[in-house]
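Hey all, sorry for the wall of text incoming. These are the two entities for the joint prediction.
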Amino acid sequence: MDLSRPFNAISPTVDTAVLVALFGSRESRSGRQVAQSIGRSQTGVQHVLDRLVSEGIVERLHAGRANLYSFNYDHLLAAAVEEMAGTRVELVRRLREQIGGWDSPPVHASMFGSAARGDGDPESDIDVFLVRPREVEEDDEEWRGLVEFLAESIERWTGNDAGIVEFAESGLGKLRQRRPPVLRELDLDAIDLAGTPIRKLLAGARR
Amino acid sequence: MMTRASGRVQECGTREARQRMGHARLHLEVADLASGTSDADLEYGPVAASIAILAGIAAADAACCAALGYRSRSENHRDAADLLAKIEPGGKAAARAMRRLMGLKDSAHYGFLSLGPGEFKQAMRQATDLVEFAEEVLLRSQ
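and here's what came out:
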């Protein structure tokens, strides 16, 4: 699944892209603005907008000679569009729920990379940064089972491979000293899932 | 043209939204850290609350940039709350949190209220709500 446009997994059409673009605010936009925001031709988007207005899920407002369009949040299908627009919100919710239920909780867990930024493609991994507690051995059977189940769940939920970067709590000091480029990425975009927030965890890595 | 709220606005997009989201998270964590070292005699509370307020303002900017494509540049932070109210879903609740946060800021600024532990907790609650809201808006944005 392309997490930058997750709705493409079930409806790879201009119609869905237009609906999801209009969803998210009560703002009215011109056909040109909608076309620009989704990178499609104005003529094609205008046909789609006309159809969606006739279905009642998009509202048209006349502003002088221009037409402005907005999403109709009262429409029976508004919830279906919300589900599609909120795919990454749901992914984060499920990850937090699953990791939050671990008997051996991680010191820290976050989602980072393209899944956190929303700029991936259908082949992108869903990257998770996990810090294993000091008292849990790397080959601890229970821990390995939890991590493997997490990876399987991510693949089932999204169709994408899970990229799980596991790190031992005891190695955090060295990581802070070395400051590899991935720390900058984590610092900028990581979305906390469990445990100590990433920026607090890496605070010693900043200068 | 887009229909816009009154007050000065500045166009912004995903890049700015991510930057302001980073500021919001950092401010919230620093406010939390400052509160951890708080001592009534040392009066870290007002400073921590002020940082929490900055976290809320940054979160509001992030959400507006991601969902609306512009943010408030008005001197009056209540204009930012009006912009938040246009975001769906959850914009109206976020606008209420922003107004409460700005109420604390103004009271403290004009000396009507000293920011004690109660106000700090309130500021942290509103700022946390705004940061979580902005995070969801960014996750929804394309």
